[in-house]
Amino acid sequence: MTKLERIHRLLTVPDEMNLGDKQELFSKMYMKLLIFVHDKGYGVRQKHLLRCKDCKIGHKRSLHKSSLAIDIVLTKDDNLFSQTEDYLEAGEYWESIGGSWGGRFSDGGHFSLAHNGMR
Prior knowledge:
Order of helices and strands: HHEEEHEE
CATH architecture: 2-Layer Sandwich
Number of domains: 1
Distance between the termini: 27 Å
Radius of gyration: 14 Å
Helix content: 25-40%
CATH topology: Muramoyl-pentapeptide Carboxypeptidase, domain 2
Shape: globular
């Protein structure tokens, strides 16, 4: 078993995990993502980490409202990346550690952890 497979196995999220435990896991996963993209030479600008429960923006059950999603912008050499394909390597890494990547639904900068049927 490779190191990546061991990490994925450790981070597989059980359905019965409560919200608080998932929030802690999401924070650890996000730190790993930041290290991964920085090691690849990118900078990161955080966009949407938390939305208020009553916000009209996005889906009414958005994982941003549960602190289980973040939107980021990758940067390199003063360039901001906005195309989904620009995030492919980061997205595939995120999925390899148990997350859901927004690039699967044309939102490359979106990284989340599934909860109550939302991704």
